[in-house]
Every structure is written in C-alpha cells, then in structure tokens.
C-alpha cells in the first residue's frame, strides 16, 4: 500500500492549518487570558487553604494549566470541517470513489488539522509562559520545566500518542457526520465531552478521590491529562506504563471499532446534495 496519498492529505491539511496566522495569534491571546484567569483562581484557592494536601501543588497546577491551554486545539471538538461540508453538499461521494483506504485518508487529514493548529500555538505559548514570564518577573506563575529528562522524553511520546488518539476520536465524529449528513451533532457531542473529560475545565487529579480512577481510564484523559502527568512526574496508578498502556489501548480499540462502524456507515450511506 502506497503512503503517498495519505501523506498528501496530511500535507494539504497541515498547510491549511498554518495559513491562518492571525487566527493563531488571536487564539494565543485568548488562551493566555483564560490561562491567567485560571492561575489567579488557583492561587486564591491554594492560599486560602494552605494546610490541604492536594494531589497537585500550586506550581504543578499552574504548569498543568499552561500545558493544557497550549494543547487546547489538539482536543477532538468535532468533525473535520471539510467532511462536514462534503456531507452537507453531497461531495462526500468523491471520497467514496477514491482508490484509497477511506479510514487512513480521513485520519491523515484529521491528524494534520489538529497538529497544524496545535503546534504553532503550543510553541508560542511555551515561549511566552516560560522564558518570557520569567524575564518580566513572573517566575512563580510561569511554565515549569519537566520533572526530569526521562519525564520529558516520555511526555513527548505520550503527547504523540495523545495526538493520534485525538485524531481517532475525530474519526468517530467524521463517521457520525457522514451518517447524519450534518456536522452539528459531532460538535454538540464532541465539544462538551472533550473539554470536560480532558481536564480542560479542572485538572483530572483535582477531582474527588472516588471518581479519579474512572476519569483516568476514559479515552479523553489520554489526549492531554496523561501526557501532562508524565511531564510533571505526578502520581499515576501503576506508573507511567499504565498511562501509556491506556493510551495504546484506547487507540487500538477505537480504531478497530471505528473501522467497523465506518464500513457499516458507508454501506448504508445515502448522499443528497444541498
């Protein structure tokens, strides 16, 4: 099987993601603002209850927030916009006629869109929240370094798995869009699930004790929460191997089940043009 079509799909979506530089800057400003507001809230809570033994220290919670904000556009908030437009207009039939594996074709485009949006923002935010914050005297509120070089390497591996897992979840939203012929359902379902279960609203380690194992075991934790925990060197039940194992498990399970669902959807697909 030739990889050239899938690399082409990846390259096209990557260029589209890098084209809108103003959107990158605007997104960076918004994420810096929300990140700063979140940090002030954490500082107030931690200083009001200094004797409480929290799973994350204030410094760790701040670093968790900065990394989470930098990876916000890596979340699977809905379907690939091009597929949503194709499903609405009936142009999705062109993808059905391509002599390629449809799953890999859509997955390549979905992954490229996520990375094309996330990588520039992550690099810029890391520079602003890291060295620049320290230079202007905000070292206590800045992005902290990894727990160790090994943690940094494992976190990079985990982020890679998280990006693949996120693209696989986007594939599920793509299939839902092809099935319903509308992208609205994927955004209605995907956005709240991704934001809540990834730790974007509140770091997953800060939830009550009884719910933490369930939050760690669900797939959205593998997108950002597990990589951040590995980066910080914070506690993961079973260690780093458990975190990476959960990511691989969900990546494999969602791929196998997603391929089956895609096959059923394509066999029953009825295309109508807008």
UniProtKB/TrEMBL annotation:
<feature type="transmembrane region" description="Helical">
    <location>
        <begin position="63"/>
        <end position="83"/>
    </location>
</feature>
<keyword id="KW-1133">Transmembrane helix</keyword>
<dbReference type="InterPro" id="IPR010390">
    <property type="entry name" value="ABC-2_transporter-like"/>
</dbReference>
<feature type="transmembrane region" description="Helical">
    <location>
        <begin position="228"/>
        <end position="258"/>
    </location>
</feature>
<feature type="transmembrane region" description="Helical">
    <location>
        <begin position="187"/>
        <end position="208"/>
    </location>
</feature>
<dbReference type="Pfam" id="PF06182">
    <property type="entry name" value="ABC2_membrane_6"/>
</dbReference>
<feature type="transmembrane region" description="Helical">
    <location>
        <begin position="20"/>
        <end position="43"/>
    </location>
</feature>
<protein>
    <submittedName>
        <fullName>ABC transporter permease</fullName>
    </submittedName>
</protein>
<keyword id="KW-0812">Transmembrane</keyword>
<feature type="transmembrane region" description="Helical">
    <location>
        <begin position="149"/>
        <end position="175"/>
    </location>
</feature>
<keyword id="KW-0472">Membrane</keyword>
<feature type="transmembrane region" description="Helical">
    <location>
        <begin position="122"/>
        <end position="143"/>
    </location>
</feature>
